[in-house]
Amino acid sequence: MFPFAARSYDFVPYVECRNWIGGEWCAAAGGEELEVINPRHGRAMGRVVVSGAEDVERAVAAARAAFPGWRATPLKDRAQVLYRLKQLMERDLEELTWLLSHENGKVYGQARGSVLKGIECVEYGASLPNIAQGTQLDVSRGINCEVTYEPLGVCAGIVPFNFPTMVPLWMLPQALVSGNTFVLKPSEQVPYGAMKLATLFAEAGLPAGVLNVVNGTRAAVEALVDHEEIRAVAFVGSTRVARLVYARGAKQGKRLLCLGGAKNHLIVAPDADPELTAETVVASSYGCAGQRCMAASVMLAVGDVQGIIDRMVARTQAMELGGDMGAIINPAAVERIVGYIDAAERAGAKVLVDGRGARVAGAPGYWVGPTILDHVTPEMPAACEEIFGPVLSIVRTPSIDDAIAIENSNPYGNAAAIFTTSGAVARYVIERVSAGMCGVNIGVPVPREPFSFGGWNQSKFGHGDVTGYDGFRFWTRPRKVTSRWEIAKDATWMS
């Protein structure tokens, strides 16, 4: 259903994206639509409906109706849907990759990698019947305690533009295998990844109403967070909106986990391996055009690492825009990114590699080339605010302790990394930085399944992480049962 024919970067128009509610495609009640823009070409590839509270109510009603039957389905049978989904995603890997590239602007390799990571999340969800069993223990004579993990009911997820396929799959496998039904709200800028996932889930045998997709903007988000029958909400996006969503839902007593922004620091020690460090820092900074919460945005250069910086400059200058790095999501993002570069230059930073004004022949879309700013000071906005683009700021520091202090002074806490050949230095840094995900000679320290994803401080609002076993626990609640089946005449601690 809705095959996407593109197998190159050449512009291809696509279909209208509607809501998926109760196993059917339907228009939004208000009739409003938005254009879906291909960022590489700056052209509308299709349109998406804009939903409001009435559409959210319809989706929740479908999820509520599907919940009793899905909850009664044995855990292992729920997981079989994910086994089939994995096979279908592998079958359609090329289509999923090119669709993601066209709606988001990623280059092929990075789009494919994010789809593969989504498949890995599906694999983990399928494994849950083997690891999510409850526990039981005879705690006293004739007394048994057990724990089971029960679904919450109707749940919701709100996901961003930068990973249209992967981020929904941070949530859906654990939530659905746990027995919940779900309403997903994708970014209105990239709705097709969720549309394709809905079709694949249906083909995999997921019953109608278990997964619903509602497209829209702020009104749809607020309706989801406010709806009294939605028991839990997961959100991924900017810190500003994550804080708002968390506060709004918390007032109603909902369970929320809201992942926000980041300002990730890579500390480079003088003994770091020059080639490995240069290659890894550049890849971390400019992968996905810097539009990911795990991108390296500040390099803390400790002492004399000029040789590494020179290698980074050479690698960055050799990058092919449009081939090695993709487009920026929209014109407003281009303006914001360029504004940070301009401000840093006016404040005294040196532009070693300048991506302003970069273009790609035959692709009149939204572009900023990879950029390196040197001699950035910690108080400059480029050093302390999330740019969410292909800009690396180099802050020079005299010592490891100074670098740690700069990292820990930023309000975020998503990721931090140390580049060194000394195990002692690596351990010293990792034990002191205030970040939830840390790397040693790794520029993008994203944990692989089954290890969970999530930051600290203002990079996350709520408890636990969104993927791995933490994700399973977020979408469930433990039921504790204490039973007596042996009638003893003498007293125990229970009576």
Would you mind describing this structure in some detail?
There is one protein chain. This protein is of the alpha/beta class and 495 residues long. It has two domains: 19-260 and 459-479, Aldehyde Dehydrogenase, Chain A, domain 1 (3-Layer(aba) Sandwich); 264-440, Aldehyde Dehydrogenase, Chain A, domain 2 (3-Layer(aba) Sandwich). It has helices spanning 53-72, 75-91, 93-104, 108-131, 168-177, 192-203, 218-226, 239-250, 274-286, 306-317, 331-346, 381-384, 400-409, 423-430, 468-474, and strands at 19-21, 24-26, 33-38, 43-49, 135-140, 143-151, 154-158, 181-185, 211-213, 230-236, 255-259, 264-268, 296-302, 350-353, 371-374, 391-397, 412-413, 415-419, 437-440, 456-457, 460-461, 476-484. The strands form six sheets. The chain has a seven-stranded mixed β-sheet with strand order 14-15-16-13-12-18-19, with helices on both faces. Helix 1 (53-72) packs across helix 7. It is globular, with a radius of gyration of 24 Å. The termini are far apart.
